[in-house]
């Protein structure tokens, strides 16, 4: 990097030099987030005629679920985790709290690899039970609860770092996967790093103070956009770190670090399982039929308490003034639908992958399977985008905007995501072939790619039912 940095590297450098501006942006976002989260929860619920521009509550709902979340997901794919490093209010608050906190080291229990999946499952489930998309109190308890937890973790662990984001954030696992598709990333040039160290030893360069990387990434090895928050603080460090272009998804072909079950669980059982379960129950006539059957059975057996028991609003949706009350039967069925349905979807997605991994020949290791499964990231990410943007569409339709083209766009995006996945699978199996992991040649690659095509089908099937079938 002794040559003049190109435009994108200069952009990364500008991020490093404009820390004050980034901090200003961060605290403005914190203010907006707090306002849109707290104020609507204090106002009376709007009536059914309320629109985005006539009700602060509906406006906040539109901003959170219609704009914020869908476009945060898109930003991950386009720019890596810039959202985390520059805009996320939870990241800002947990880091600020950790500057004044106890500064304890990260405990072992927090390093457990299952947290990304468990935190995603817990938040998704709780969000559905509290109707996070529909009611400001639901948003306050789910998002606000997560923010309070982030601040508490910051007050106890780390010193000026983001232990929460790294270990417990409910969307860390999802963002980690999506950011790997990004065409931009901060990267360390190892040779330049070594050359700089040598120059310091020779007295030809001055020692630079290490940047405060909030998610605690080993900077010397930085080559993945998965954990990096793309905050820009390390740009130019040792003249070896900079923002660079790369082919979208290149990191999936040759992962800089081993792919683990934790990635697989978030992708196959989280994005392609639990998340689809959470989006589908309210659209499904099967859900209604199962509920009716169970309700009749309970009445016949004189078991009325599951039908008459309700819980406080912040646990289980309870808005009698809006004729929207979940009883224990509702809550249990939603939980079962999401957990069991999501688990079955994840299993149905896993089956062809397992079979393909076995039939590809060579040593059918699990690490080879985890690696191949990364081909499904485009479909998994798109599914969450489609589910969240359904809220955007509903709100815009409520404001009289014509969206008859929406289903054509959805179908096109689903096809493109699958094609991208197949291309990734073909390239991943090519890499596995080159590294001696496959038994055969092109036939093995074809088997692996076909298994990914089959693995797309369960998710595609549910999206088809949701947007066209039901
Ligand atoms: S490695 Fe750390 S300091 Fe560098 S951009 Fe990523 S998050 Fe920021």
Automatic annotation (TrEMBL):
<feature type="domain" description="4Fe-4S ferredoxin-type">
    <location>
        <begin position="63"/>
        <end position="101"/>
    </location>
</feature>
<dbReference type="Pfam" id="PF12801">
    <property type="entry name" value="Fer4_5"/>
</dbReference>
<dbReference type="InterPro" id="IPR017896">
    <property type="entry name" value="4Fe4S_Fe-S-bd"/>
</dbReference>
<feature type="transmembrane region" description="Helical">
    <location>
        <begin position="409"/>
        <end position="426"/>
    </location>
</feature>
<feature type="transmembrane region" description="Helical">
    <location>
        <begin position="446"/>
        <end position="466"/>
    </location>
</feature>
<protein>
    <submittedName>
        <fullName>4Fe-4S binding protein</fullName>
    </submittedName>
</protein>
<keyword id="KW-0812">Transmembrane</keyword>
<feature type="transmembrane region" description="Helical">
    <location>
        <begin position="369"/>
        <end position="389"/>
    </location>
</feature>
<feature type="transmembrane region" description="Helical">
    <location>
        <begin position="334"/>
        <end position="357"/>
    </location>
</feature>
<feature type="transmembrane region" description="Helical">
    <location>
        <begin position="109"/>
        <end position="129"/>
    </location>
</feature>
<feature type="transmembrane region" description="Helical">
    <location>
        <begin position="63"/>
        <end position="88"/>
    </location>
</feature>
<dbReference type="InterPro" id="IPR052378">
    <property type="entry name" value="NosR_regulator"/>
</dbReference>
<keyword id="KW-1133">Transmembrane helix</keyword>
<keyword id="KW-1003">Cell membrane</keyword>
<keyword id="KW-0472">Membrane</keyword>
<dbReference type="GO" id="GO:0005886">
    <property type="term" value="C:plasma membrane"/>
</dbReference>
<feature type="transmembrane region" description="Helical">
    <location>
        <begin position="21"/>
        <end position="43"/>
    </location>
</feature>
<feature type="domain" description="4Fe-4S ferredoxin-type">
    <location>
        <begin position="148"/>
        <end position="186"/>
    </location>
</feature>
<feature type="transmembrane region" description="Helical">
    <location>
        <begin position="135"/>
        <end position="157"/>
    </location>
</feature>
<feature type="transmembrane region" description="Helical">
    <location>
        <begin position="266"/>
        <end position="288"/>
    </location>
</feature>
């Amino acid at each position: 990097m002794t040559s003049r940095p190109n435009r994108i590297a200069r952009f990364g450098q500008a991020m490093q030099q404009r820390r004050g501006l980034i901090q200003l942006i961060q605290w403005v976002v914190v203010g907006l987030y707090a306002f849109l989260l707290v104020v609507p929860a204090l106002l009376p619920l709007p009536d059914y005629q309320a629109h985005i521009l006539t009700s602060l509550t509906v406006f906040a709902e539109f901003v959170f679920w219609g704009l914020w979340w869908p476009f945060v997901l898109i930003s991950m794919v386009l720019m890596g985790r810039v959202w985390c490093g520059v805009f996320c209010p939870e990241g800002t608050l947990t880091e600020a709290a950790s500057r004044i906190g106890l500064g304890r080291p990260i405990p072992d229990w927090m390093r457990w690899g299952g947290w990304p999946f468990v935190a995603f499952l817990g938040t998704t489930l709780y969000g559905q039970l509290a109707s996070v998309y529909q009611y400001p109190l639901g948003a306050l308890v789910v998002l606000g609860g997560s923010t309070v937890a982030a601040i508490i973790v910051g007050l106890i662990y780390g010193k000026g770092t983001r232990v929460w984001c790294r270990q417990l954030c409910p969307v860390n696992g999802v963002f980690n996967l999506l950011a790997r598709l990004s065409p931009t990333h901060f990267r360390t040039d190892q040779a330049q790093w070594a050359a700089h160290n040598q120059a310091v030893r020779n007295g030809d360069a001055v020692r630079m103070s290490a940047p405060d990387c909030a998610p605690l990434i080993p900077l010397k090895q930085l080559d993945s956009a998965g954990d990096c928050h793309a905050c820009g603080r390390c740009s130019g460090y040792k003249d070896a770190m900079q923002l660079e272009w790369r082919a979208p998804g290149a990191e999936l072909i040759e992962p800089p670090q081993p792919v683990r079950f934790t990635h697989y669980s978030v992708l196959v059982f989280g994005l392609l399982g639990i998340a689809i379960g959470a989006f589908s129950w309210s659209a499904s006539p099967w859900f209604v039929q199962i509920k009716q059957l169970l309700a009749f059975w309970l009445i016949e057996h004189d078991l009325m308490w599951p039908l008459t028991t309700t819980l406080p609003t912040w646990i289980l949706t309870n808005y009698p003034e809006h004729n929207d009350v979940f009883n224990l039967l509702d809550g249990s069925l939603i939980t079962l639908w999401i957990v069991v349905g999501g688990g079955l979807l994840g299993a149905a997605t896993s089956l062809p992958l397992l079979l393909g991994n076995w039939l590809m020949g060579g040593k059918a290791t699990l690490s080879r399977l985890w690696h191949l499964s990364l081909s499904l990231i485009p479909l998994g990410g798109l599914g969450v985008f489609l589910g969240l943007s359904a809220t955007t569409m509903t709100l815009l339709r409520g404001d009289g905007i014509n969206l008859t083209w929406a289903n054509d766009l959805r179908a096109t995006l689903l096809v493109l995501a699958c094609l991208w996945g197949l291309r990734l699978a073909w390239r991943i199996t090519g890499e596995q072939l080159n590294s001696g992991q496959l038994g055969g040649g092109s036939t093995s690659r074809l088997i692996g790619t076909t298994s990914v095509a089959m693995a797309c089908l369960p998710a595609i099937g549910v999206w088809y039912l949701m947007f066209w079938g039901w």
